[in-house]
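Q: Focus on the chain.
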Amino acid sequence: MNEVEKGMMKYIRQWHGTTDEKMENINNLTDLILDHALWKIPENMKKELKDCRLRLKELVTKCHTADGSTSDRARRNTLLKHTVGFCLVKIKGWAIGQHAIDELTAHDVHLMGFLLPGETGGRHDRAEMTHARPEVKVSVINEDLIRVVIDQSSGENAALVTHGWPAGVRHALIVITGAADGKEAYRRMTTRLHNDVFLTAAHGKQFIIKAAFLRHIDDEPVFGNQLAFSMPLTTEDLVAALERQHEADAREHARETERHRQEMDALLKKLEARK
């Protein structure tokens, strides 16, 4: 390949990358096909790609928030697998066929994120999953934001010091769950050791965070340490809590006053009866 096409290898490899990387390739391919009417892709293939992209966008966006459920992530993963397979089998097959009859150039095929038969991306056989376990550290920045640092552990009794990525590993999975209900508030794959995480509507709540190193994004995660942390209350939260306490105290005072009045009424009736 020439130098320009070598630069496209990033996108060619992303078909086997993270959810966000695969989504970037799907967006790129869809936009290319819609912008290049002269490519004459069959309408049924174009429609399926557009429909899959639309549904995926909604699911991927939802799964990046605390509203994303386990069911949502399962549907996202299933649809993502189907769409990537559709791109790499159906659309790639069509593109290679068009190249064979000189309707598409090699550059066009590479632009879509595909290699031609006989080309290689320099990839190697799949390696075994990593046994390295991460140490996760959390700094609470404010009531909505935390900073998460993932470090490689140097052993069972490792101090929380930075060791960087394990050899051959460039993905990590971060999972945050509510300490009270165990519900997932955040789950995301990352390629960074330092991550800023926003937790919406998390004021005053306690959470558990854990992380796992992944050599391949579809490896079964094996988590390292679990860490508990609490999000601070805002000034508005404190004022609201104080108002709720005042309201509760007022209701209790009203109940006590009414109980005292009833006791006095009962006593007066007894005294009247004795006359």
